[in-house]
Each structure stands twice: as C-alpha cells, then as structure tokens.
Amino acid sequence: MNPAREEIHILEDDPLVAATVARALEDYGFATRWFRTAGELLAAVARQAPPLAIVDLGLPDRDGMEVVRELRQSADCGVLILTGRDVLSERVLGLELGADDYVVKPFEPRELVARIRSILRRRSQPAAAGKARRRACFEAWRYDPASLTLAAADGSEQILGAAEARLLLCFLEHPNRVLSREQLAANPDLSPLDRSIDVRVSRLRRRLDDDTQSPRLIKTVYGAGYVLTAGVRWEIA
Predict the structure, then answer these.
(1) pLDDT tens sequence across 24-51
(2) What's the pTM?
(3) Which of 79, 85, 173, 188 could form a disulfide with 90 if both were Cys (CB 3.0 to 4.6 A apart)?
C-alpha cells in the first residue's frame, strides 16, 4: 500500500487539533481532508468513502458514537476514534459499535500513524475470491469468516463486528498457542499501556458465553497474552 495515495478524513471541531493531526499524517506521506461537523463528513463519505476516517467524539452537531455507528453501517471505510475521553466504558462502546481502534489524546504521532497503517493494511488484504469458503468448528460453535457469522449449537446466529471478527479469526488460526496483545492487534507498535485488545477479548468471551471472571475457552496467560484452548476443525462450506 502506498500511503501517499490514501486520503484520510479527519472529523474534529477544534481547528488546532485538526491541524496537529493533519500535520502528523502528512509528515508520514498521507493526504488529509478536514471536516468540522459530522454532517460535512457524512455527506462527503456518501459521495466517496475514504480508506479511513478519524472521528472525534465531542462534536457540535452529533454525538461521535452515532457517527461511528453510521459509518460502520453505511460506508466501507476504516474508523479510528481519536478523543480525549479516556474512559473504559467509552472505549468499550466505541469498539462495540465497530471502530477499528481507539486512541486517546494527547497522542504520539508515530503511534497514531502506526495504528492507521495497521488498519489500512488489514483492510487491504485481498479477499479470498475464487477460493473455497471455509468454516471453523470449535467446541459447540461454528464460525464463517466470509459472513462474520458465529453460530451456536442450537442454531442461533450472531454477526460479529469487524474488530472482534479479526480477533476470533486470529485465535482460530492459532489454537492452543499463546498470542501476545501485539500479535492479536496485528500491530507491533502497540503501546504497553493500550488496553483495546483486552477490551475486545472480554467482549469476544461474552459472545462465546465464556465466563469473563473464570474463562475456560479464551484463557489469559499473565505477562504473555491469551490462548484459545480448543481444537479447531476447518470444513469446506
């Protein structure tokens, strides 16, 4: 991927912050376009979706979480939340609504760029067109990566968000192997203080009816990461 060809949309009502973000990205070869209001951004995205939109949560015309939800439902673009709200409940909600990542201000430019590149890299991976469609069977579950559908033994189904779908797929492709938070995030530059992966693992456990207090399926290996303790069988759909 050539980042010079990628135009990142920045939704931020504070012009000084927007300029700081734009300058950081442009220093690393990205093009940027600034929007002060949610209405302006959504109108532009409706015309042509960018590869990624950076969304602030404190906006003059809409709640930023609503913008994240609308982008995820109507646009094919990555979403990174950049906000001053360093609250776990806000981080959880943002990720549950489908944001690819959540970064708290003040930010370190190199880390922000690394996270953006990680999102773009994951989204640019070629689809498995022309390949046989696979489903993973593990414990009492069946997961279809093509449709992001997780099915239980009783036949009930749920559609996973993009972030938790990538996380589950990573576990399924490496069962019974300890994976670090950096590996699960597909981002070697992940900050040691970042807890977004921990939040996603907790949410995925709930999806799998795995006791978050005493998990049996996705176990925590303190100081190392997480491990899926299940055999995985892949079948051709």
Answers:
(1) 999 999 999 999 999 999 999 999 999 9
(2) 0.61
(3) 85
